[in-house]
């Protein structure tokens, strides 16, 4: 068989070209397909595309090609939505996790004298793009996560926690909803560090974060505010509910049985509670109120819960 | 005797396209309108034999003009020339008394054969 | 007035070409989708880079945007943005005749976008004796409000653009979407010469 000039050029392409007649029989394919599908053109010539590629989703494929025929316009299939259409092996068998070549596929109508006669399918190998994009996406996800998480305790860091508070605050103001804030600080934490070393202090912070995270509700946002201070945002929660949670936190921390070098470590916490009030125009106001209550709890002798003064009348 | 013709379309280009597509031998006195309101005023104040009417126009659209013609009880022959060629729209204007529905861009041969068919040339 | 502004005749000519293309495209779509498709009279405006994001931003939040580049002879090129609201994307499977779950929502969006863009632009191109090629449609984002962000990224490439907005409505399926064609400055002058050629014929 002698090849036309165009066929010779097509055979140099590092993309697949398949031409189908209107009954979806293969009337041409280039060298790329001969290699990757491991079938010479003469062996597939005039065969139905479904017989050569039984993996094709027939209903979808038919619908796609009908659109091309009826609207006389191209149609596309990207690896981002459908990793591959044709099960062709790829050239990076070791470094990628898929068995098949990732593909961008284009279907275009071929006309002769104003009459649609064929459909051309162009298959581009985008395995590399797919591989790097997938890696990039994973890295970005990891980065975004790392940006929100406190490295030591694995709970939200202050920056992200404050962003959450800003949002919840705005929502509560807009819908006139309840919002409570709990801030707590481990008692005499400096003493633990001084007596047992920073490794022990770190262990206490990690364990505290772990037990509190198990305790709070899914709608609450728990974060490390700084040092040995933690904070919980409680949306749709009034003062009674917030006090209930605060007392549970206090109790839970008092009950943790911690050992460091086989020596028991006792930890307690002082807790400040505040709820959103009419005079709170910025979320920082709420933090300031909870903070004031926290100092109150410390002043009253630690290991207890205190409510912001302006709220005492309501309790 | 020459016929009185009104071309109503908001597009200058479209009006020119109709004008150029009219058969040369047809003796006509031509007026133009760039919206439905203008057309209805001209139709009311003049006797117009043939109206070439676009459908999609600001203010009063083609359908509004057809309704106005029915209300005023005029015997103007309306040839709708529209870009909106979906069957629903064609049925609608034919029910409102249009003589024919021609698709844009208007073609001189199609226009001539329609005018012949309805005995205007 | 900028040298890139279309004059009144050019504007009228472009508007008429687009109206006719819209009509034929909606007819083709109606046959293909087997339902009545309403394309609303588009707005054509010249926007400069700095105000473009503002004019696009007046819309409510878009749930998804699909972008598809187009290019024809005589230097006619641009980018089509298909803007969907969240309630619209739920209707697409029905509209395209897919079984529930047959296609991911993203793939449906890509499919319908490509159909709307290429159908309209093919008809438009044939009116100016041109032929369009297309890049593969790309989903920009399925959440938040990435339209302005995306446009801001485009602004590196142009100072002025022609913005054509077309609204598709398929009432039987309560499906709506906006197609925004952005034609960069360099392509505007090419379009203007095409329009002038058409106007000269009349």
UniProtKB/TrEMBL annotation, chain A:
Enzyme class: transferase
Catalyzed reaction equations: 2 GTP = 3',3'-c-di-GMP + 2 diphosphate
Pfam families recorded: GGDEF (PF00990), PAS_4 (PF08448)
InterPro entries associated with the record: Diguanylate_Cyclase, GGDEF_dom, Nucleotide_cyclase, PAS-like_dom_sf, PAS_4, Rev_trsase/Diguanyl_cyclase
Segments forming domain GGDEF: 177-310
Residue ranges of the TM segments: none
EC number: 2.7.7.65
Protein name: diguanylate cyclase
From TrEMBL, chain B:
Listed InterPro entries: Bact_response_regulator, CheY-like_superfamily, Sig_transdc_resp-reg_receiver
The keyword Transmembrane appears for this protein: no
Sequence ranges assigned to domain Response regulatory in this UniProt record: 4-119
Positions carrying 4-aspartylphosphate: 54
CDD domains: REC_CheC-like
Gene3D superfamilies named among the record's database cross-references: 3.40.50.2300
Keywords noted in UniProt: Phosphoprotein
Protein name listed in UniProt: Response regulatory domain-containing protein
Species: Thalassotalea eurytherma
Automatic annotation (TrEMBL), chain C:
Domain of life per record: Bacteria
Record keywords: Chemotaxis
Listed InterPro entries: CheC-like_sf
Protein name: Chemotaxis protein
Origin species: Thalassotalea eurytherma
